[in-house]
Amino acid sequence: MRASLLIFALTLATTLQLSLGQDVSCTRGDGKPGYCMRKSQCPKISNMIKQRRLRNSYTPEEITYILNSVCPGSKELVCCEDDEKVAEGLQMLRDQECGVFSFAKTFGGSEVELMSRPWMVYLTINNNSTTHMCGGTLIHKRYVLTAAHCFNGRTLHSMRLGEHNLLTEPDCKVKRGRMVCAPRVVHIQRGQIFQHEEFFKRALAHDIALIKLPQDVVFTNSVRPICLPVNETLQELATTMDKFFVAGWGHVRPNVPSTLLTETIVPNLNMTDCYNSFNGISPLTTSLLCAGDVRHDSCSGDSGGPLSHVTELYNGVQRFVQFGITSFGSPKCGDHHPGVYTKVGSYMRWIAYKIATK
Ligand SMILES: *[C@@H]1O[C@H](CO)[C@@H](O)[C@H](O)[C@H]1NC(C)=O
Ligand SMILES: *[C@@H]1O[C@H](CO)[C@@H](O)[C@H](O)[C@H]1NC(C)=O
Ligand SMILES: *[C@@H]1O[C@H](CO)[C@@H](O)[C@H](O)[C@H]1NC(C)=O
Ligand SMILES: *[C@@H]1O[C@H](CO)[C@@H](O)[C@H](O)[C@H]1NC(C)=O
């Protein structure tokens, strides 16, 4: 029994490793994150090879470096830290105007002001003949960020950008006696989905995905990107913030879906408290964030949506920065268990590399 299990596990491991192909993320022998690619495409290693042709030998440091560059399951590929591509992707994110919001206040209750969260994306996903929804965020004119589990065996049905009330079109509100309407919703039917390559290895780890849009979206008052934690200063805020905003069209109460974009404030929990609230049974890692309490939690429909906060550390003006992606929690919202979020800051290299190369 043990042996056959072991053989099964080994076969599974080999199959998984064989599937590690080009551009798949990997961990180098020295612990640094990288991507599998051909030697010729890896700047650092192809330079070493050029140098060796001149000198006719590698230095001991180069040998160590190359030995640490194994791409699991592939002899042709190396695990390369492609810092240039990551830097290029981060620059693409920094170069745009993001996280700008017109109104921080919400309407009575939890409904947000019209056009105040212009990065929110309403995703519908096909599962055979049924569809379900997930949230997402516009992070760039070409990319939407969401959770990988949204696409587990399912396909994208459509995306709505600049949405507020799911049932009306256009969406209008009376403000100080005047009718204000948002631009028409942008419907996008296609997108290329990139789930994190290691998402399948362990349930609900690396729960992050990007959707590449078929063309650049045009920014309007109701369609704009949110900022991401593009450097360590911003990444560290995720652990020091005392609360976050969670937005979405998810259930306001168990089994009661909302037709309006709503937002809730959830307290940030440290990992000790989080771990204890799951009775220590949850596979919590440092690439997760934990937030919420009995009364304030995101609900199932909010999967893929943002955990965010306003900070002045982004170019010195108040901006919305997304720190988390709603990943999992208990199916009943607000029942003593906090919500668990993918920590965006831990995946900045993955995001940056993808948007610079895909
Ligand atoms: C698809 O939908 C069926 C019925 O609604 C459900 O039982 C099943 O778990 C869903 N599968 C996935 C992969 O979501
Ligand atoms: C999808 O639905 C069809 C018809 O209802 C059914 O025959 C098929 O087995 C379903 N496939 C999956 C993967 O659930
Ligand atoms: C976690 O937060 C609680 C208060 O909510 C505090 O008592 C505890 O010391 C904190 N633990 C760590 C490791 O910061
Ligand atoms: C982090 O990035 C933001 C946005 O580009 C910038 O305003 C801030 O100065 C950066 N902080 C550091 C320490 O580099």
Plain-language structure description:
This protein is α+β, with helices and mostly antiparallel strands. 21% of the residues lie in helices and 30% in strands. The chain is built from 7 helices and 19 strands. The strands form 4 sheets. The chain has a 7-stranded antiparallel sheet with strand order 11-8-5-6-7-13-12, covered by helices on one side. A 6-stranded antiparallel barrel has the order 14-15-16-19-18-17. The site of one 2-acetamido-2-deoxy-beta-D-glucopyranose has 6 residues, from loops.
Q: In which range does the helix fraction lie? A: 10-25%
Cα gyration radius (Å): 22 Å
Overall spatial form: globular
Q: What is the structural class?
A: alpha+beta
| Residue runs with pLDDT of under 50 for 5 or more positions | 1-19
Q: What order do the strands of the largest sheet run in, or round the barrel if closed?
A: 11-8-5-6-7-13-12
Number of helices: 7
